[in-house]
Amino acid sequence: MSAIELKHGLAQAQAEIEQALDVLLPREEGPEASLFAAMRYAAMGGGKRMRGFLVLEGGRQFNVARNSALRVAAAVEMLHAYSLVHDDLPAMDDDDLRRGKPTVHKKWDEATAILVGDALQTQAFAVLAAPDTHPEPAVRAELCLELALASGARGMVGGQMLDILAESAVEPLTQAEVGRLQLLKTGRLIEFSAEAGAILGKANQSQRSALCNYGHDLGTAFQIADDLLDATATAEETGKATGKDAGAGKATLVSLLGLERARAQAERLVSQARSHLDSFGEKAELLRLLADYAIARRN
Questions:
Q1: What whole-number distance in Å separates Cα of residue 41 and Cα of residue 133?
Q2: Hey, CA dihedral for 94, 98, 104, 107, is it positive or negative?
């Protein structure tokens, strides 16, 4: 299997997830039409859909029904989109561009952007909790619990708080502190995405742990790659402003280790991620290729 097959697999997943989002997000109608339009703008029409792809490929290891996996993939992408909308706000990262387009608060206004994030987050859990996602209530409940843990105060939101606090810290963060911040802010949602297919497939603990560990190492490598892109890529390549971390004096693994050591660390993590998939055989080859892609990409 080659990078071309990964590209095809990602493209197919993107199209299917986009269709699922189209069905699961509210239509632009009624008095709240502007809110619904902004939700669809934030969640559809862009992005790599890596988290959704992880859900689909994880589910494929256990022959999970495609519709069930797509609903979970769409829910994860809604939650991820909410986090980006809020991260882009002036009170957070203050970004004007996302995926080469105006951010939600620029296209609409800040109040709408806050409400869009709130609505996307709650819609994600509504989708997970619905009977169409899985016939067993216990499975749906576990999906909701694990996503809440990954995205809440001890996950993504907690990581964002650490990121904000770091900006005013007297001393720059240590390598361990940067690693924890990035694990919470970015890594935990990627871990959940990798494990979600195993939850849907009612896999044993060993199989769940293997996918979770894969997601952990993939997420860390992905974040280092993001930091490398911020330091080396252009805004045209990434679709958003670059050089912001250095401009803000923000500690990253790149600033602490240097470009070459950070790149070597990412490559070690990719190798570890791939090794976690040994028990799944050839069926997990797209997941292995995704790990390689995480540090080879330019956006």
A1: 24
A2: positive
Read off the CATH number of the domain in which 244 is found.
1.10.600.10
Question: Do the strands 101-102 and 97-98 form a parallel or antiparallel pair, or are they unpaired?
Answer: antiparallel
Range of the domain at 160: 3-296
Res 47: pLDDT: 85
Rounded Cα–Cα distance for residues 89 and 173 (Å): 24
Which residues sit opposite 98 in a β-bridge? 101
By CB neighbour count within 10 A (0-12 exposed, 13-18 middle, 19+ buried), where does 241 fall?
middle
- Structure token pair of residue 58: 């994880």
Domain count, the chain: 1
3-state secondary structure (DSSP) of residue 239: coil
Q: Which two tokens stand for residue 273?
A: 């991620």
User: What's this model's pTM, rounded to 2 decimal places?
Assistant: 0.92
| Spatial contact of 222 and 189, defined as CB atoms under 8 Å apart | no
Q: Provide DSSP, 2-28.
A: -HHHHHHHHHHHHHHHHHHHHHHSPPS
Task: Please give the chain's pLDDT, 299 residues, in tens.
Answer: 578 999 999 999 999 999 999 999 999 999 999 999 999 999 997 888 999 999 999 999 999 999 999 999 999 999 999 999 999 999 998 999 998 899 999 999 999 999 999 999 999 999 999 999 999 999 999 999 999 999 999 999 999 999 999 888 888 899 999 999 999 999 999 999 999 999 999 999 999 999 999 999 999 999 888 888 888 756 665 555 555 665 566 778 888 888 889 899 999 999 999 999 999 999 999 999 999 998 887 66
Q: Can you tell me the distance from the alpha carbon of 152 to that of 159, in angstroms, rounded to the nearest whole number?
A: 9
Closest CA to 83 of 152, 10, 14, 146: 152
Report the alpha-carbon distance of residue 6 to residue 290 in Å, rounded: 7
Q: How far apart are the C-alpha atoms of 117 and 84, rounded to whole Å?
A: 8
